[in-house]
């Protein structure tokens, strides 16, 4: 017995009900249970993160090894970071844009560190402790 077994097509092309259509309900023919929501005070909510890794230290304009107070992974103090600088999607977008505008200089972002992503790593445990995004320190003046 199909879904439309109680319907037949008339001469006009419309469907007419010629029998009863069997319907089924969930939960064994009973009405589904009602679900109610209770508001929760915002002070009782706690934030959880999907990963158990500590947050990265905000190193916004450091493209050279720097000293951090404490590593969030191994909790060592006064650690000098090691860095890894590499081209990212933003770097390749700049290269494509320069190629379209003036192709002889399209390779410049590959040798300019401020056009690439820089990751800082703890020298003790080799875990990532910070990241500097491309062009984030482009127009920053050193205060000193």
Number of strands: 6
Structural class: mainly beta
Mean pLDDT comes to 74
Q: Any idea what the radius of gyration is?
A: 31 Å
Task: Tell me, briefly, the overall form.
Answer: elongated
Task: Give me the strand/helix succession.
Answer: EEEEHEE
Distance between the termini: 83 Å
Count of helical segments? Answer: 1
- Note the beta-strand portion: 15-25%
Low-confidence stretches: 34-51
Instruction: Give the % helix.
Output: under 10%
Oligomer: single chain
Major beta sheet summary: 4 strands, antiparallel
Strand arrangement across the biggest beta sheet: 3-4-5-6
State the gist of this model.
Helix content is 10%, strand content 22%. The chain contains 1 helix and 6 strands.
What does this structure look like?
This protein starts with 6 loop residues before the first strand and ends in a 12-residue tail after the last strand. With 144 residues, it is mainly β. Residues 34-51 have low confidence and may be disordered. Helices cover 10% and strands 22% of the residues. The chain has a four-stranded antiparallel β-sheet, with no helix packed on it. A two-stranded antiparallel sheet has the order 1-2.
Produce the secondary structure layout.
Elements: E1 7-9, E2 15-17, E3 67-70, E4 77-86, H1 89-102, E5 117-122, E6 128-132
Antiparallel strand pairs: 1-2, 3-4, 4-5, 5-6
């Amino acid at each position: 017995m199909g879904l439309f077994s109680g319907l037949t097509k008339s001469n006009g092309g419309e469907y007419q009900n010629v029998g009863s259509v069997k319907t089924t309900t969930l939960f064994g023919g009973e009405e589904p249970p009602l679900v109610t929501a209770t508001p929760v005070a915002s002070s009782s909510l706690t934030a959880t993160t999907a990963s158990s890794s500590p947050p990265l230290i905000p190193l916004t304009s450091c493209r050279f090894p720097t000293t951090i107070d404490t590593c969030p992974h191994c909790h060592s103090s006064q650690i000098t970071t090691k860095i890894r600088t590499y081209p990212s999607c933003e770097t390749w977008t700049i290269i494509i844009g320069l190629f379209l505008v003036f192709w002889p200089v399209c390779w410049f972002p590959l040798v300019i560190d401020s056009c690439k992503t820089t990751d800082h790593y703890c020298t003790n445990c080799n875990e990532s402790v910070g990241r500097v995004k491309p062009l984030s320190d482009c127009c920053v003046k050193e205060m000193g």
